[in-house]
Design a protein that fits this description.
It is built from six helices and no strands. 27% of the residues are buried. The chain is mainly alpha-helical. α2 packs across α6, α3 runs antiparallel to α4 and α4 (71-106) packs across α5. It has one domain.
Length: 164
């Protein structure tokens, strides 16, 4: 019985930490999250393919680093994976922000901005943990779309700096 309760407690803490991650990304990088939100709501299919190609291109060096039997290169490989997932979490915060705006719109603007974002993040998380559909559709497609939006946002920022 105690193992079941500790597993349940661990899942609850994991869920709360994901809400915290999305909220921290939204508060620390508001411009990036807003740019990702706008891109994702504008053309999600485009950013799905950009995310797929970028993830494929980024997975190759990460896999090589992880597969080399040196501890240093394996640490670098896992650090590379963590950075990529960090970029994807910024895009996921954009999806949660859009869901929060839509929840706020449905409630005639009755929620403040943070409350609306937290509701959107909770909806996004609950959709992802739904058995089979969430695991096989929401998580992979959402991750690729959010990663594609962030890659595009970072690329546009570099292009804008080069023009100045």
């Amino acid at each position: 019985m105690s193992e079941s309760l500790s597993a349940l407690g661990g899942l609850i803490v994991l869920g709360l930490s994901y809400l915290g991650l999305l909220t921290a990304a939204w508060l620390l990088f508001p411009e990036r999250v807003e740019q990702a939100r706008l891109k994702i709501t504008d053309k999600p299919g485009r950013y799905l393919w950009i995310g797929f190609l970028a993830a494929l291109g980024a997975a190759i060096p990460g896999a090589f680093l992880i597969l080399i039997p040196s501890p240093v290169t394996q640490i670098l490989g896992w650090a590379w994976v963590a950075v990529l997932l960090g970029f994807s979490s910024l895009g996921s915060a954009g999806i949660a922000a859009e869901l929060g705006l839509r929840v706020n719109w449905k409630n005639d603007g009755a929620h403040q901005s943070l409350n609306a974002f937290l509701r959107g993040a909770l909806i996004w998380e609950l959709a992802a943990i739904f058995p089979v559909v969430g695991w096989l559709l929401v998580i992979p497609l959402g991750t690729l779309i959010s990663f594609g939006a962030m890659v595009s946002t970072l690329r546009r920022k570099k292009e804008a700096q080069a023009e100045e």
